Amino acid sequence: MRGRVLILAGTGLARRVCAAVAGLDVLASLAGVTDRPIDLGVPTRVGGFGGEDGFRDALRGVAAVLDATHPFAARMSGRAARVCGDLGVPYLRLTAAPWNAEPGWTRHATVEDAAAALPIGARVLLTTGPGSLEPFQGRGLTLWCRRIDPAPPMPGVTWIIGTPPFSQGAEVDLMRRHAITHLVTKNSGGDRAKLDAARALGLAIHVIDRPAAPPGEETHDIDRATAFVRAHARQLADHPD
Description:
Largest sheet: 6 strands, parallel
GO molecular function, one term: precorrin-6A reductase activity
Order of helices and strands: EHEEHEHEEHEEEHEHEEH
CATH class of the largest domain: Alpha Beta
Strand order of the largest sheet: 3-2-1-4-5-12
Pathway: Cofactor biosynthesis; adenosylcobalamin biosynthesis
CATH superfamily of the largest domain: NAD(P)-binding Rossmann-like Domain
Radius of gyration: 19 Å
InterPro entries: Precorrin-6x_reduct (IPR003723)
Keywords: Cobalamin biosynthesis, Oxidoreductase, Signal
Oligomer: single chain
Strand content: 15-25%
CATH architecture of the largest domain: 3-Layer(aba) Sandwich
Mean pLDDT: 93
GO biological process, one term: cobalamin biosynthetic process
């Protein structure tokens, strides 16, 4: 039976799915990590669910869940898959395919491993998110950290404010302007402009491997994910609300 589909959003893939299913009974959910969320074009809630019990409550009346969160949001995805399985709610996770490792990359299992591998004096562009900044501090590094919202100054850190995607040309200009020597990024897949820019400039590239996928069905195919939503969501015209 069709009903409302909950889309756990926060990625470019989620935005594309939302754009494709406007007019259906969907509710997007954003974690609230930015003060300036992008308009998804569908009804959207912002903020956490209040733990597992809160998420269970949120699934009342939900026909299906599309999990299009960041591939490194393993705890969130694991909870969503587990609760949907318990309640018998259809669940599908949509992620970008991970990048294939390339010669010259240094791969790491964790952010901490990546931080420990950087030499003193390195000029580092971090695209791992401000929440992973701490392991890199106090190591004699000069850090440029990408984030979406402005933040107060922090010693030894320059904030790079912007919303992806970024062109390869813009990434090359950024890296040259700040004389970056090392790029540290997570293997989130999708747009690879920063990787191509770093390779073109001969920079050291450190990539943090994606965590093991939590239980639950996963796809990298946005058309399949869109079809999943359409199969479970009713037309808004059929819904009295």
